[in-house]
Amino acid sequence: MVRMKKILVTGGAGYIGSHTIVDLIASGYEPVILDNFSNSDRRVLDGLFRITGKQVPVYDFDCADKEKLSKLFLVENPDGVIHFAADKAVGESVSFPLKYYRNNIVSLVSLLEVLKDFSVPNLVFSSSCTVYGQPDNLPVTEESPVKESPSPYGYTMQVSERIIRDTVYAHPAFSAVLLRYFNPIGAHRSGIIGELPFGVPNNLVPFLVQTVAGIRDHLTVYGNDYSTPDGSCIRDYIHVVDLARAHVQSLEWLKENNGQCEVFNLGQGRGHSVLEVIKSFEDATGKTVSYRVGARRPGDVEQIWADVTKAEEVLKWKTQLGLGDALRDAWNWQQQLVAAGIKS
Ligand code: WQD
After folding, report:
1. Mean pLDDT throughout 168-182?
2. By alpha-carbon position, which residue is closest to atom 28 of ligand 1?
3. Looking at the domain assignment, is residue 221 inside a domain?
4. Is the CB of 328 within 6 Å of ligand 1?
5. Which of 115, 251, 264, 321 has the CA that lies 20 to 30 A from 241?
6. What is the pTM of this model?
7. Domain presence at residue 23
8. Does 57 reside within a domain?
9. What are 146-162's pLDDT values in tens digits?
């Protein structure tokens, strides 16, 4: 059994990172946060203290800075790393590909080199279902073909997975888990942490709750002429709290399985259309969503949802919260933001 106590969480002040910090502490781990706060806010740190009662050590610099990263490893001597730090906006990556290649790839290579220098054997990597593109068959399994990605962001996820696989192959003492997220939504039940909005949300649920809060005039449903039952796109929405727990289960798995590289789909294992999400939100909250149907969004996959059998059988993980729970928690979080005067 590999000792695993202190875990470096890069991007630990971000949306999924912060929820994972909560579960790490609840599970007896000692997390350390590395975040350059380019897409997160220091207010999250107060929230983490309020929820956990712990003051998590925080380092504020970019993962690509190998010198600072090495000094952090000297001081903290982590047993493993969960790597969230990356840019994740599909549309932005099309406009600024070099930002994505530098930040997502160089940071990962820098981190892997330092892991090797300090003989830290465990990595959990934040990947995405975007690697699949538009699947030929549904639900997608981990063996479903990885197609050429329509976006630089998706391609950086594919390249990152390959870089990690090659590193594990070359260094038998090194182990990694690659987690392919489907669509993370919702917030911690307390409403103390959640997805901090920066500008106009790209994603469906943040835009939906801002519309209901009166921050946006209306939600646009990007197309209802797809070959789906109600014509709108289908996705696999997963509560961020369930998603966070999968990272802790991955560390547990790594304790017993070194020298391996395994990939897991993380989703509900079922799809919901955009119009079903709207209906579920209205049922869960009693609120009405003002929406109009507009043109399709370029690059959108028509439908995708996960086969999560492997995560259930190998990681002993499955979702415990449903779409209604996530939408109710997303709305609760949005109301906390409004009460705190935080608009975007
Ligand atoms: C979901 C559905 C839209 C906004 C992206 C990334 C993915 C991951 C999650 C990082 C789609 C529709 C959306 C709106 C709408 N990020 N929609 N009106 O595109 O599935 O996934 O975010 O890992 O990698 O690709 O998520 O929430 O943007 O869209 O109708 O105002 O909602 O068309 O069908 P997506 P999304």
Report:
1. 96
2. 203
3. no
4. no
5. 115
6. 0.96
7. yes
8. yes
9. 988 889 999 999 999 99
